[in-house]
Amino acid sequence: MELNMSADEVLGHIVQLHNTGESLAKKNVKKLHPDLMKNALYYYPSWEHALQKTGVDNIVH
Question: Nearest CA to 18 among 39, 43, 36, 41?
């Protein structure tokens, strides 16, 4: 698998999406930002874990 983001870039991209008001629901991100999802799942055990690392997980439902 070819990665195009570092772990820090993944987290930064998640925060950026959150700050622009975009849904961080797994289904939405997988559809609209497949590279972000692929990289996040490489560095973290789950999408939810990546969200927890950013601190925005408590607002995603």
Answer: 36
Packed helices 34-43 and 47-54: angle between N→C axes, nearest 10 degrees: 90
Residue 11's Cβ-side half-sphere holds a number of Cα atoms within 13 Å equal to 13
Q: Are 12 and 51 in contact (CB under 8 A)?
A: no
In this prediction, residues 30-58 reach a mean pLDDT of: 93
pTM of the model as a whole: 0.87
Contact 6, 36 (CB under 8 A): no
Structure tokens at 28: 């939405």
Name the residue with tokens 């973290």: 44
